[in-house]
Amino acid sequence: MNDADATPAPGSDAAPGPEHGTPVPARDPVAPIRVLIADDQAMVREGFSVLLGAQPGIEVVGEAVDGEQAAVRAARLRPDVVLMDVRMPGTNGLEATRRIAAEREEGGRPRVLILTTFDLDEYVYEALRAGASGFLLKDASARQLADAVRIVAAGEALLAPTVTKRLLAEFTRLGAPRAPRMDRIRDLTERETEVLALIAQGLSNGEIAARLTVSEATVKTHVSRVLVKLGLRDRTQAAVFAYEIGLVTPGGGR
After folding, report:
1. Which residues, other chains included, contact 174 with Cβ-Cβ below 8 Å and sequence gap of 6+?
2. Which residues are registered as beta bridge partners of 38?
3. Sign of the CA dihedral 83, 109, 191, 128?
4. What confidence score (pLDDT) does residue 201 get?
5. Residue 54, SS3?
6. Tens digits of residue pLDDT in 96-137
7. What span, in angstroms and rounded, lies between the C-alpha atoms of 174 and 152?
8. Are 5 and 89 in contact (CB under 8 A)?
9. Which of 232, 222, 208 shows the shortest CA–CA distance to 8?
């Protein structure tokens, strides 16, 4: 397929439906982004609540003190984004993320943004597998926090270079597949396969467009088609998939 033939997809990268791999409608861009904050430390919850409450277009609709409460309140309040701490008593953030991801409504909401610190590297891979859409350091500024919430709410993945490096390190530790499982991507075109590999390397749409010398709209179309064809939720899941099948290897590339 030629890039010139690709029809730009409207809005952000389309996320496939949970069962049929078909595009689902994006959230209403006019409505405020509804956020649930889950952390066992009251000061952290209050701090994030104040920071987000001061941001235009963002509304904190609830708080949770542990993973069990986060899963229950996510089902009841239907937020767009859940800020989820990993280490909480009882049901931890990973298990809560799995439960929330398993019960997502049409449109892929709520999306989970993991709250983490640099010493939680061992959780990165499992959180991605559990269904998290990205990571945010607890010492993030108000602007970084708001930007992260908006990015995830828009259906994109927050996969920063630092997270990509940790993901690579985890795959190096676990050991990559000995041979690429190309049968898993037989429905992709050559260009779509190339885009998938670049996503796994942590490149943004703009960076992929520059690398391939195509428009960013064309890249977004390719990304959307990759997600739909493979039945993947977002870029983060696509990156994990690419490493798991051996399309991209730690320390190398395609």
Report:
1. 125
2. 64, 84
3. positive
4. 81
5. coil
6. 999 998 887 655 678 999 887 755 556 767 777 788 888 777
7. 28
8. no
9. 222
